[in-house]
Structure formats: structure tokens, C-alpha cells
Amino acid sequence: MALRALVVDDEPNILITLGLVLKSEGFEVETASTVKAAKVVLSQSPFDLVLTDLSVESPTAGYELVHAAHEQRRRPATLVI
């Protein structure tokens, strides 16, 4: 079973690029362009990795998503860029 990654960024080119890189490494990738959308996706299924832009909608919105990820029953690794 492939590892699952959630990539969150408000810039489409970055979402595409990071998604392609992770797919090439064997990940199943889901993307979101807002923290709100990412939280919905995160609540619907488990992920092994959450990769988020720090300033998706505000200067520190990425930390809000990291906090939400750490509240999941199966805590994913998180990376803020």
C-alpha cells in the first residue's frame, strides 16, 4: 500500500510540482489550496505526510494545519515550507 501525502499551497504551480515529486517517490497525493479544504480532506482519511506552505492564507495558517494534523488519531509527519 502506497504512502499518502496531503500537499497544501495556494499557488497551483507549487501544488503540481510538489505533487509530481511525491508521486515519483511512490506517494498517493491529494492537494488543497486552503487550510479549510485541507482540514476537510484530513478529517476524511488518514495521511502519512502533510506538506504545507506556512502562509497559505495568512502569515501563519500553515501552523493551524499542523496542529489539526497532530490531533488526528494516526498522526502524520508534517513539513512546513
Write a structural description.
By secondary structure, the protein is α/β, with parallel strands linked by helices. It is built from three helices and four strands. It has helices at residues 12-24, 35-44, 61-70, and strands spanning 4-8, 28-32, 49-52, 77-80. The chain has a four-stranded parallel β-sheet with strand order 2-1-3-4, sandwiched between helices. Helix 1 links the parallel strand 1 and strand 2 (28-32). Helix 2 (35-44) runs parallel beside helix 3. The longest helix has 13 residues, at 12-24. The mean pLDDT is 94.
Task: Spell out the key features of this protein.
41% helix; 81 residues; alpha/beta; 3 helices; 4-stranded parallel beta sheet
What is this structure, in a nutshell?
With 81 residues, the chain is of the alpha/beta class. It is built from three helices and four strands; from the N terminus they run E-H-E-H-E-H-E.
